[in-house]
Amino acid sequence: MELQKRISGRAVHIGDEEYESIRHSMAWNALKPDRRPELIVQVASDQDVVETVNFARENKMKIAVRGGGHSWCGSSIRDGGILLDLSRLNAVEVDPEKRVAIVQPVVTNREFARKLAEHDLAFPFGHCPSVPISGYVLGGGLGWNIGLWGVACFSLLALDVVTADGKLVRASEDENSELLWAARGSGPGFFGVATKYYLRVYPLPKAITTSMLMFLLDNLPEVLTWVEEVAGKLPPFVELTLLFTSAPPPLADQCKQVCIVVATAFADTAHMASDALSPFESCPLENYVMRDLNAGTPFDVLFDTINSLFPEGKRYAVDNIWSHAQLATVLSTLRDQFIKAPSPHTLALSLILPPQLANGLQMPDAAFSMIAPIYVDCSAIWDDASQDKPNIDWIRSTIQALEPMGVGHYVGEADLPAHPSRSARSFKQLNWERLEELRKKYDPAGVFHSYLGSE
Ligand SMILES: Cc1cc2nc3c(=O)[nH]c(=O)nc-3n(C[C@H](O)[C@H](O)[C@H](O)COP(=O)(O)OP(=O)(O)OC[C@H]3O[C@@H](n4cnc5c(N)ncnc54)[C@H](O)[C@@H]3O)c2cc1C
């Protein structure tokens, strides 16, 4: 029977009038993949998901799942088969007593934060407000307050999954635990459709506070000496990031690019926050070109800041690397690449993790297994299609230059087509092998696409 008759949502075929505009809307990135699924299915219920999976299996069609379409490399847009779009599934329930939220896939970070704030609760939301829980949590989830709340997928207590045989099952520590193991980090290679996430939530920090110092990029060596010293002193509830970006207009005659050191304290009182951020106030470097200390930054403000750095409507090529090397070695190499970036909108950021998280010893066993003290994430950002090649070449050569210092990648933000090994290198070897064994067990006929670039 035709799929449209089996579902309450909508099935759009290649060739239908609205197909091309819907296909375009499936990717957040303005750099749209040149790939065309045969059928785009916008499901309206869990039962629609079951019907679509059964239809695909019966007709030997492959499925690519789409949550909010924020994958930088457009992982859910494949050639042929079905694109299963979950964007209509966007409800949230909160149980404040149990500190658990039950979330459908396409609830954005901002929506989730506002809903939880009604109960004075929070979650390790991703940094950008429009990213949904869907692919963010499955990929691992490097979010706000990572030092204290950890990688987001470890707050995934259970999930509802439609498996390749069309069954809707609960996966938790007690039942179908292998599926929970995989859902915690397999991201764009998960072999099922997650329709509900049961998430542990946390008391909302009452005094989220940010301090930042901006330096000319030419001063990087001394900045890094100071940052290395400071990083060891910050408590885990302070998130420390270095950002390379173009100089803001008032500084453009002094330097083309700047380095911004930002620390956000997820504290409960203003006193606790200013105490934790005091190394910024007492920074011995006097050559900063801008400084903002102890600014109140509730989640909405944090989200707005990130939104301004990653505006919608631009073309993006993004990739990343985890490194155990010395901060100065990694970031000097990054600087040498950054100054060659073809677009002035380009950004590079480096998240410095507290040692107790970075050594991975506190992480439960799960697919998510690649982590290191330094996370470098580079974003080539530009407007004009004629600049696609130089920007994509730049991101690829930048990550290549960092490779000798790298231990692996973060699958949730990886440029998967860059190299066939990109997905495998986003996991520890044993975890990758187990993931591939589980894929064979739960999806023997390959109903779901595996990682983009690896098939
Ligand atoms: C502006 C921006 C900022 C970002 N910031 C962060 C950040 O701070 N931290 C971070 O960790 N990541 C960040 N990301 C990356 C983001 O978390 C991933 O791209 C994630 O996949 C987005 O979720 P999505 O549902 O939109 O993914 P989609 O693009 O919809 O899907 C990507 C893939 O994930 C899988 N998938 C998604 N949902 C499901 C599901 N329900 N069931 C089964 N498989 C599914 C599918 O294989 C799919 O191909 C950012 C991305 C953008 C564009």
Describe what this molecule looks like in 3D.
The chain is of the alpha+beta class. The protein folds into 3 domains: 3-85, Uridine Diphospho-n-acetylenolpyruvylglucosamine Reductase, domain 2 (2-Layer Sandwich), CATH 3.30.43; 92-204, Uridine Diphospho-n-acetylenolpyruvylglucosamine Reductase, domain 3; 207-426, Vanillyl-alcohol Oxidase, Chain A, domain 3 (3-Layer(aba) Sandwich), CATH 3.40.462.20. It is 29% helix and 24% strand. It is built from 15 helices and 19 strands. It has helices at 3-6, 19-25, 46-58, 109-117, 133-139, 146-149, 177-183, 220-231, 270-276, 278-281, 299-309, 327-338, 355-358, 388-402, 429-442, and strands at 10-13, 39-42, 63-66, 82-85, 92-95, 100-103, 121-122, 156-162, 168-171, 193-200, 202-203, 207-216, 238-246, 257-267, 290-296, 315-323, 347-352, 374-382, 406-408. Strands 15-12-14-13-17-18-16-19 form an 8-stranded antiparallel β-sheet, with helices on both faces. Strand 5 and strand 6 (100-103) form a beta hairpin. Helix 8 (220-231) runs antiparallel to helix 12 and helix 12 (327-338) runs antiparallel to helix 14 (388-402). The longest helix has 15 residues, at 388-402. The protein is globular and about 70 Å long. The two termini are 30 Å apart. The relative contact order is 0.13. The model has no long low-confidence stretch (mean pLDDT 96). It binds flavin-adenine dinucleotide. Flavin-adenine dinucleotide binds at residues 28, 64-72, 75-76, 86, 105, 126-128, 131-132, 134-136, 138-139, 141-143, 187-188, 190, 193-194, 310, 412-413.
